[in-house]
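Field reference: sequence -> structure
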Amino acid sequence: MTAVVTTLKTSEIIYPSADGEPVAETYDHLYAILTTLEVLKQYLADRRATVLANQYLYYAQGFPKLRVAPDVMVIFDVEPGGRDNYKIWEEGQVPKVIFEITSPGTKSEDIINKKDLYEGIEVEEYWLFDPRGEWIREQLRGYRLGEDGYELIRDNRSEVLQLRLEIEGKLIGFYREDNGEKLLIPDELASALQAERQRAAELEALLERYRDQFGELP
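Structure field:
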């Protein structure tokens, strides 16, 4: 397999960062993309890694038309933070994990063209998520790079991310393998924060009642 195609061209080449196309077909697809992006960003916040969504991945230096825009991609051993686009030859790292939020309209592209491309540039894991279950009955399907190319993942484990993936309605639920904890989505984080504030307020009220009865705590 070849990770990067190079060229000897030295003239300045423009690598666009946008194509004017919508990010996703439906609200369900968009929400799944943004939620996956945010959950994985929080999970990898203390790692030398970045998570990008719907941004061009350029894999052939000198050929700006050879590009793809993964819905979500995770790249390790690079500087954290966003980019307008991602060029493999500049960063020196191929994405380790790619998620495509798929639909019947993108089925052929996702299961044939993108799968062959990601396998060719040696993306270690490729996940297809169908939030509406329109063509993937189990909604989630993953592939892991083996000696002979991509092999179907049968246990919904991401070895690269060390996470277990579960279907939760129209979203992917991510669970840490080291302690079993779920990676909370933004709505769940907000609820957890509100609950924590409520518990803190209740504790403060309890302490205030104690002070009224017994004075200050020793």
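Note: Residues 186-214 form the longest helix (29 residues).
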